[in-house]
Write a structure and sequence with these properties.
With 202 residues, this protein is mostly beta strands. It has four helices and 16 strands. Helix content is 13%, strand content 39%.
Amino acid sequence: MCNLYKLGTMPAEVAKWFNAADSLSGANFGVEVYPGYPGAVVADGELKQMTWGFPLVQKSKKTGNSLKPKPVNNARSDKLDSFMWRFSFQERRCLIPLNAWAEAEGAKGKKVRTWLSLPNTELFAVAGIWRAFDEWGECYSMVMTDSAGAAAQVHSRMPVILEPKQFALWQNGSHLEARHLCQPYKGDVQIDRTEQLWTQRG
């Protein structure tokens, strides 16, 4: 499952690519996006900042006190009817722009980053859902489906990659129409295996 992706394209360029209003003036987020941290999404015709991951409130087994919420940053396409995702999937779908996403490969404690992207394009979009929470404000989660092709060599699941002609349907179509888009990507995927440790943050 995806727990790291990167977006190094300037917000103005991203907004132009999606034909969206740029609401990111003064926004502060890094090129590498991690769960629980800010990222950029296209929602309601705007490129805006949200937190990556729906906050899951947990309680200590010892004390019963509330713990720091855990960001649930991946929504499996076969679980979109569950209580956690259902209303967001039916009512609030967004586009997540990125340059590449990463998966961890290797032995435990020595896992390294493998980046996956689309050849011949710097920027693309994957499917997302969003909602507002008291804890973190507006948050989004990335919709995942079964992997196919070269991506299946790295992980059994991958983000739902959307083609430009599918952007409007994902955001504004019925949830039944949107569900049909939750398919393994049939195009080529470029794989870049690195020696960079998974846990290292820039």
